[in-house]
Amino acid sequence: MASQTPPNKKNRDEGEDSTGKAKRGHLCFDAAFETGNLGRVDLVGEFEYDLFLRPDTCNPRYRFWFNFTVDNVKQDQRVIFNIVNINKSRNLFKDGMTPLVKSTSRPKWQRLLRCEVFYYKSPVHQNHYVLSFAFGFDKEDEVYQFALTFPYSYSKMQAYLNALELKFPETFERSSLGMSIQNRKLELVTFDEVKKPDKVDQKNVIHMVVILARIHPGESPSSYVVQGLIEFLAAATQPIAKALREHVVFKIVPMLNPDGVFLGNNRCNVVGHDLNRSWNRLSQYTHPTLSAVMKMLKEYDNSSCYQVDFVIDIHAHSSLTGTFIYGSTYDNVYRYERHLVFPKLFATKCEDFCQEHMMFNADDRKSGTARRNFVEALSDNVNTYTLEVSMCGYYLNGTNILTQYTEDGYMRIGRNLARTFLEYYRFTNILPIPPMEELRPRKGRPRTHRPRARSKTRSEVRVRPKTTRAYAPISYTDLSICYDSATSDEGSPVRYHMYHGHAGAYGGLRMRPHAHQDQFSLSNIQAARFSNLDFTSDYRLKVPKLKTPATAGDQKMPPIEMLTVPPKPHLTIIDFNQLTRGGLEEATAAGGRTIDREKEKIRRHTFKSSSRKA
């Protein structure tokens, strides 16, 4: 499909060469392939295109899935694509999901950069939500393909099952439940290695698990989840898979709506019916695949040999992140508690499980879904769930980091689903619990890791000599650290050792000075005389020189009044909210005048005391 241009001769001549082919740079769009979806393209600018999605066959309501190719591009050509008729306004494009792209030489799907994708209301398009993304074509001879999420076609499923049937013929059983309206096979995959008992009673019934997927064609991630589950169960040497196959029968329907998948629909089959709203009004003519599945379920549910434990319908969610489960509510409390066991076990196996999105209800509007209809159609032993996986990604636990899903990420969910079945059947004593030797982790590294080379000569470990411990001095904020006079040995601060005694000026603690101190040490002065002074400032006590030097025998402690005591620090509070021009200088000058007044008071007090003493 070539891009549409105004129907005049000038544009036709400019857009075509002599052979009638479009000139290089005039993009050619194509969706005429399996799972393809694109209805119309309008060229609205030199480098801008409006894309219209084709609605589901016989149902114009659903328009969300897209999958198309673009070729005939120029190198380094940049364009803007606007998908203008998406019917679902609430979707994951608001949360950071971006379309996928791949090319001929780069067959691996990659997501577009988030900075180049925009989802917004457009006044040009009647205030409808528009998905716009910019893209630059870097190679001319490439065919580029764009899709909503990872496509999974009916032909790909057939090729995968053919290869698996050849690889695991002993563990893998493939059959057909019926045909679709357009005569496509409804595939059924069975894993059954359970030993059939000679006498069947209630204690030795055969347990069964039924998995359904891809009832909505646009939810292709569900097919990758089923592929991961099938690969895990088919592995002949996998001990978990072997234990499950020997005790439980698995029935897997990988694609319930093959016609819708082939046509590239979003939710409906070829006649425009949403199959996940049609379980309560089945018709052999309009819903042949659902009728075949319901017939199989009722046969096994009414059988005395089999007990259907689970029916899990796998979907992909377009507006929520993470992996979560929808269940049902029951009036019977014991049945409801048993119904909650499997989701709790599954949450412990998946790091991407989102409990906030998990829901259990009995909504009448959902009566046509498999989850709600099987509650009434099947026996009370059957637990029916809807397993939802996001089309975009999941948030890491406790963070706002969005991790995008890949094909392997979806298949990992299928493998975790198989591990959850193992835990459940061990919990219900259907599977034997292995001995403790098998449960304990193996010591050392696996054989795949090479051990690091170690030196043959090992150095001996020397024993640490026993030494006496000297405790570091402890300083408390309520105790002042005072310094010696200028005649001390090294000018170091006097260190005090604490010991308990009677209550004194320091709250029950007395101080014992260090051994080497001279006669001018402050520890020789009574603490009561200095209880009203503050020594927290970084000053040294200055001792004035005497006019007549005293002899060694006449050395006495100078009077306390002669010691110059540093002033108490004063804090001037400045309110910056009330400062005006020049106010900061006035406030600073006021603080300086306060300190000068305090120094003058101390100087006068010292002078009066000296005069009185004389």
TrEMBL record:
Chain intervals with Basic residues compositional bias: 442-456
InterPro entries: Cytosolic_carboxypeptidase, Pepdidase_M14_N, Peptidase_M14
Chain residue ranges for the region called Disordered: 1-22, 437-460
Single biological process term from Gene Ontology: proteolysis
Cited PROSITE patterns: PEPTIDASE_M14 (PS52035)
GO molecular function list: metallocarboxypeptidase activity; zinc ion binding
Domain of life: Eukaryota
SUPFAM superfamilies in the record: Zn-dependent exopeptidases
Signal sequence region: none
Peptidase M14 domain location: 150-425
Cofactor(s) in the UniProt record: Zn(2+)
Active site: E388
Pfam families the UniProt entry points to: Pepdidase_M14_N, Peptidase_M14
Annotated family: Belongs to the peptidase M14 family.
Protein name stated in the entry: Peptidase M14 domain-containing protein
